[in-house]
Amino acid sequence: MINVTIFNEFVHEKTDENVRKIYPEGIHMALKNYLQDEKIKISTFTLDNITDLTKEVLDKTDVIIWWGHLKHHEVPNEIAKNVCESVHKGMGAIFLHSAHFSKPFMSLMGTPCNLTWREDGDYELIWNINPAHPISQGIDRFIKLDCEETYGEPFGIPEPDQLVFIGNFEGGEVFRSGCCYQRGNGRVFYFQPGHETCPTYHNEQILRVIKNAIHWAKPVYRIKEIICPEVKKPMEE
Amino acid sequence: MINVTIFNEFVHEKTDENVRKIYPEGIHMALKNYLQDEKIKISTFTLDNITDLTKEVLDKTDVIIWWGHLKHHEVPNEIAKNVCESVHKGMGAIFLHSAHFSKPFMSLMGTPCNLTWREDGDYELIWNINPAHPISQGIDRFIKLDCEETYGEPFGIPEPDQLVFIGNFEGGEVFRSGCCYQRGNGRVFYFQPGHETCPTYHNEQILRVIKNAIHWAKPVYRIKEIICPEVKKPMEE
Amino acid sequence: MINVTIFNEFVHEKTDENVRKIYPEGIHMALKNYLQDEKIKISTFTLDNITDLTKEVLDKTDVIIWWGHLKHHEVPNEIAKNVCESVHKGMGAIFLHSAHFSKPFMSLMGTPCNLTWREDGDYELIWNINPAHPISQGIDRFIKLDCEETYGEPFGIPEPDQLVFIGNFEGGEVFRSGCCYQRGNGRVFYFQPGHETCPTYHNEQILRVIKNAIHWAKPVYRIKEIICPEVKKPMEE
Amino acid sequence: MINVTIFNEFVHEKTDENVRKIYPEGIHMALKNYLQDEKIKISTFTLDNITDLTKEVLDKTDVIIWWGHLKHHEVPNEIAKNVCESVHKGMGAIFLHSAHFSKPFMSLMGTPCNLTWREDGDYELIWNINPAHPISQGIDRFIKLDCEETYGEPFGIPEPDQLVFIGNFEGGEVFRSGCCYQRGNGRVFYFQPGHETCPTYHNEQILRVIKNAIHWAKPVYRIKEIICPEVKKPMEE
Known about the structure:
The structure is a homotetramer.
Chain A: E1 2-8, H1 12-15, H2 17-22, H3 27-35, E2 40-46, H4 55-60, E3 63-67, H5 77-89, E4 92-96, H6 103-109, E5 116-118, E6 124-128, E7 142-145, E8 150-152, E9 162-169, E10 174-183, E11 186-191, H7 204-217
Parallel strand pairs in A: 1-2, 1-3, 3-4, 4-11
Antiparallel strand pairs in A: 5-8, 6-7, 6-9, 9-10, 10-11
C-alpha cells in the first residue's frame, strides 16, 4: 500500500464560483477520488488544517502531492522545511502546476522557479518525449487539453534529471511540463497542467500521469535521520 | 583563430531549382560567407570532394559543421569514424537539421536519433530556455522562422547535457532544437533549424546561434592519441 | 519472468588454469547459477555459439549481460549492431568489467571508453554513493573486494545519467564503477568489478548489485521497430 | 576585470595556533594574495564585517568564494539569501571544503549536503576525471595533498551537471571533490580540499583549480531582477 498525502490550499474553490463548479469538493478531493485504489491510500490536507500536517504524518507518507497558488506564503516555514526533510529522507513529492512557487518546491530546487504566463483559454498539447519513462506509460504521443493556463520558458529550474513532457501552447509557447529530480533519497516530479479554472484533473490521461508518478516516486530507500558522522578508516571498521 | 570546417553534402542545391534560388552557391558557402570573420577561418567540403576531408584536415580543424540529408550513406564509414575520433580527441562538432541522421552524429549519440516530421510550411518559434548559456547569448526569448520543416518528439537522443532551445511549430509539435553534449574531450551541439527549402541560414539570429556554438565548441583540451595505458601506482610514479 | 541472456566470450577460462579454477564452467555459468531464480530465467551464449545470438533471441531477451575481454573483435559487427538496436527498442543491457571495450557498449556510449589499468593484486572498495538508487539496494556503504584489477580515471564515457558506485583502489586510483544510462528506450548499466583472475562473481554483494541491475534494466516500454514517420498536424490526427 | 569577493569566516585562524601558522592573515588573505592578478580583483569579507557584504557589493561581484566551518549559523539568513539571489541573477559562486554546510550552498543545492568525515592526517589524491573541462586545465592526472581531512560518500548533493574531480583518501574513501552546477543564471562550483589545519591553499595546483573556476564561473548573462511576467501571445508581441 502506498500512503499518499495530498495538500491543496483550497482557496479558489471556495471563493470563485467557476472553480467550485469544476471542483465542488476541492482539487484535493477530485484527485483523491480518482487516484485512490487498492494500492494507493490517500489522506488530504488544506490550508485550514495544515498544522495537522505534522512530522508524524510525513513520516508515514510515501508520496506527497502539492497544489497551491494564492497562499504559498501562508504555509508555515516549519512545515515546508519538514516536507523537504522528508523528501531528503526518502519520501516522494509531486508538485502540480502553480506549486512551482510553493515553499517546498523552491527549496528543493534551489532556483527561482520563475516562468512567464498568460491566461486566455489556449489549448495545450503535452508531448511525451520519453515513452520509456515509468511516468509516461499508457500515454500516447501527446495529451490534448482544450483549456489550460499558458506557462512559458525560461522556467527557472535546474536542468532536470529526466525531462518527460514538454508542453506546446496554442499561442506559441513551450514549457518543460514534466520534470524529474532526485533530492537526497527522495524523488521529485513537477507536472505543469492543472489550472483551477480548467477541468484538467478530470482528464483521464492527466490522472494516469499522476498515478504513474506516485508509483515512480514512492520511496526506494528511506532513512530515519540525516546524519553527518565521523567515521573510522573503512579497513578498520 | 578558430579553424572551422564545413561539410555540406551539396545535392539539393544542384538538383532543386527552389533550393538553388535560396543558396545559389550551396549552404556551405552561405554559412561560410556569414560566419567567417577575424576570429573564424572557414574551409568547406562537399560530397564531391569528401575524400579530401582527411585526418590531417581534421587534426587542424577546431570545429566541424555538418549538413547532410539525402546522401548520408555516401559518406565513407572511414571518414565518419575519423570525425568521431577527432571529436573524442577534442574537436568541436555542430550538426545542423537533417544531420541528426548523419553517420558521425548517430555514432556520437549511440541512439537512433529518429523523430517525426512534416513539411507543410509551418512557422517555428525557437525558444531560448537557458539565457545564461554561451550559445544563447544575444538571442531574445525566441527566434521566429516563417518557414521551417516540422520536427517532432520523441527525438531519439540521449538526455542532453544542457538543453538550450526548444522549438514550437505552428501545427502543435515541440522539439528539443538545441542540445549540448560532451563526447570524449570534444563538445557537440545539435541545432534543428535549416531545411533546404527555407531561407533559415540567411536569418541573423540563427547565424548568431551557430557563431556562438563555434566559440563554445572550440577545443578546451586536445590530445593527439586516445590511449588506454597500463600505469604504475600513483604514489610510485 | 525476466528473460536474461548472458554473453561471455569464454576464452580465459579455457586457456588459463588460474581462471579455470575460479570459474570451472565459465563466468557465464557462475553468473547463471547465482542469478537464476523464480523471477529470472537465464540463457547463455559464448563466442563458440555467438551466431546463435540471433535477432529472435534478442527480441525475447529482457536484459542482456555482457562479459568480454580478449576477443571483442571476434564478435561480428552485425550481432553487436543487433544488440544496440534491441537496446534502442527497449531491452536492458549490463556491461561488466572489460566489456567497457566491447563493440555494443562502445557503440551505445559514442565515446572511446578508454581508461588506465594495472593488475597487481590491489584490493578495491566500491562505494555506494547513491543509497536510494534501485541498483544499490541491500548494499552497505561499500563492497570490499580483496583482489580486483585496478581501473583508473579518466574513463572515456559520457557523464552518466546516474552515478551509483565509485571504486577506490589500494594503490590510490578512483573509478566510476557503476554508471546508468538510457539509450533509446533501453537502460544500460556499466559495472566495473569482475576481473577473470579474481573470484569477484562469487561475492554475494557483487551478485546482489547485478541482480538489482537486472530488475532495474528490464524493459519499461518496448517497440517493435524504430521509425521516423511523416506525420499529420496533431490537431488534425 | 573579474571582480571576486572572498568570504572567510576567519575563526580558526584566530583561535588555533596551528591554523594561524599556516594562514597568519587568514585563509581569505592567502587566497587573495595568490589569486589576484591583472584579470582578477579581489575583495574580502569575514564574519567580523559580514554586514558589509551588502546587495550593492554582491551586485558588483562576478564570482564569490566561500569558506566557513564553525559559524555557518552566524551568517545572517538575509545575507545568505542575497548570495543565492545574486547567483540566480548570474553571479558565480565557489564553495570550498566545509562550506558544503554553509547556508547559501545548502540553499542552492536543495539537499542535505551531508557526508562522512575523519581527521587523521591521511593524504589525498584528487583525480582529474574530465581533462577537457575548463576547470581542470593545467592539472595532471591527479593532485597529491600530503594532508587533508577525509570526506566520504555518500555526499548528499544533487547529481552534478559535470563532475570534474574525485578524491581518493589514504584510508580508502572516495569523494566527489569537484562538482559543477547551474542555478538560475549563475554557475556554482564545489571544491572539497581546504581543511584549515593543512596547507592546502598554498598548493599551486589547488590554486590553479580555483583560478580556473573563477574564469569558468564568471557571469555569462546577468539580469537585474528575477521576474515572473504575464506575457502576450508571442506572435502578437
